[in-house]
Amino acid sequence: MSYLVAATDSLAATAGDVAGIGNSLTAAHAAAVGSTTAVLAAAEDEISAAVAALFSGHGRQFQLLAAQAETFHSEFAQALAGAGGAYAAAEAAAANRCRPS
Questions:
Q1: Pfam families, per this entry (predicted)?
Q2: Where are the alpha helices (DSSP H) in the chain?
């Protein structure tokens, strides 16, 4: 027979930590928006303007990917918290069924 042991307190704490990491990443990405999506040209020539546009484009793409990663991260934290709650509820229900009437 197989056994599974899950520390629901640890799952809840980990879910909180994961959510906190997500909040830190969101704040860091928000702080970097201006400097990564609106790169100024180093000089007033065509090459500098093209390089600035290139880096600004990469910054915009990064922000789009970061937003997708933030969504995934948030959903993962919610799933982790939900799994801990579901496991605790299942454990409590099983314990109640095992008690003599």
A1: PE (PF00934)
A2: 8-37, 46-98
